[in-house]
Design goal:
There is one protein chain. This protein is an alpha/beta fold. The protein has two domains: 172 residues, Rossmann fold; 110 residues, 6-phosphogluconate dehydrogenase C-terminal like domain (6-phosphogluconate dehydrogenase C-terminal fold), CATH 1.10.3660.10. It has twelve helices and nine strands. It has a six-stranded parallel beta sheet, sandwiched between helices. A three-stranded mixed beta sheet has the order 7-8-9. Helix 4 packs parallel to helix 5 and helix 7 crosses helix 11.
Length: 293
């Protein structure tokens, strides 16, 4: 726990998995003098308070962010602009505003348009989470050992970047800085495409006429590949639409790979298949080695 807080008052808009986990880390790490949870749903607010994720709750966003020197918008990407427009008049000049979304370029544009020159916006994306969502899924140590991308532009104030970096480091994350568009391209390849493929694989299985008797065999590798298809549908709808162009480029590349495999299988080219699988296996082992390090 810090000797003194980084922020006097932190307001978190959305106290689900990410927002609730950050609230817990801010409170119990002594990083904020007060943590305010902002949600329209009274039941969610009650649970957030009962679980010790926040100190105080507010159902009205403008009242919730009043007096806060840190405002975290932890809502689906598709709702970011509407939420920020609603709270912008109530945010203090000099406050640090950030988000936790998986797409950064559209969010950066909305923030620049809506906030003006009073508060400072710096985008954030903790690469942490589970397939579960909601206030009950919040975890106290969710960010420990995780990467967190902080996005910067030519106009990002140095003080704001320093404070947000200090926050994520204090909750146990390793901070990496990127430009918003670079972030979106990287995440399209490493996160967004895998989620889309997991949903498609589940739907392929669901469309089989003999699905029911096959379900007992959907274990092991099938479970591993499709685990992330249990993620929140609204969140991933918004991500797919907000990061459309980089994601479409990744899907184009994946379709080319499928066509290569299809041709080899159709022609009975075992040599080509073995070479293809061997190359993929080598890449996978290199990735596993880096994670282990």
């Amino acid at each position: 726990m810090q000797d003194f807080p980084l922020f006097q008052r932190a307001a978190i808009i959305g106290v689900g998995l990410i927002g609730g986990s950050l609230g817990w880390a801010l409170r119990h790490g002594g990083l904020a003098g007060e943590v305010v949870g902002v949600e329209p749903d009274a039941t969610t607010l009650d649970r957030a308070r009962q679980r010790g994720l926040v100190d105080r709750v507010a159902s009205e966003p403008g009242a919730g962010v009043a007096g806060a020197d840190l405002v975290v918008v932890a809502v689906p990407v598709g709702s970011f602009g509407e939420v920020l427009a609603g709270i912008a008049p109530s945010i203090e000049a000099g406050a640090l505003v950030t988000d936790v979304g998986s797409v950064k370029a559209p969010v950066q544009g909305e923030a620049e348009r809506l906030l003006g020159e009073g508060p400072a916006f710096v985008g954030g994306h903790p690469i942490a989470g589970t397939e579960d969502s909601g206030v009950e899924a919040a975890l106290g140590d969710l960010f420990r050992g995780a990467l967190c991308v902080v996005t910067v532009t030519e106009t990002t104030p140095h003080w704001a970047l320093e404070r947000l970096t200090a926050l994520w480091q204090a909750v146990g994350s390793e901070v990496v800085t990127m430009a918003p568009r670079e972030h979106d391209r990287v995440l399209a390849a490493t996160s967004h495409l895998p989620h889309i493929l997991a949903y498609a694989l589940i739907q392929t299985f669901a469309a089989l006429p003999e699905r029911d008797p096959l379900e007992r065999f959907a274990a092991g590798g099938f479970r591993d590949l499709t685990r992330i298809a249990g993620s929140d549908a609204v969140m991933w709808r918004d991500i797919a639409l907000a990061n459309r162009d980089p994601l479409l480029a990744m899907l184009d590349g994946y379709e080319r790979q499928l066509r290569t495999l299809r041709r080899a299988i159709e022609s009975g080219d075992g040599e080509a298949l073995e070479a293809y699988f061997g190359e993929a296996r080598a890449v996978r082992r290199r990735l596993s080695g880096r994670r282990q390090e």
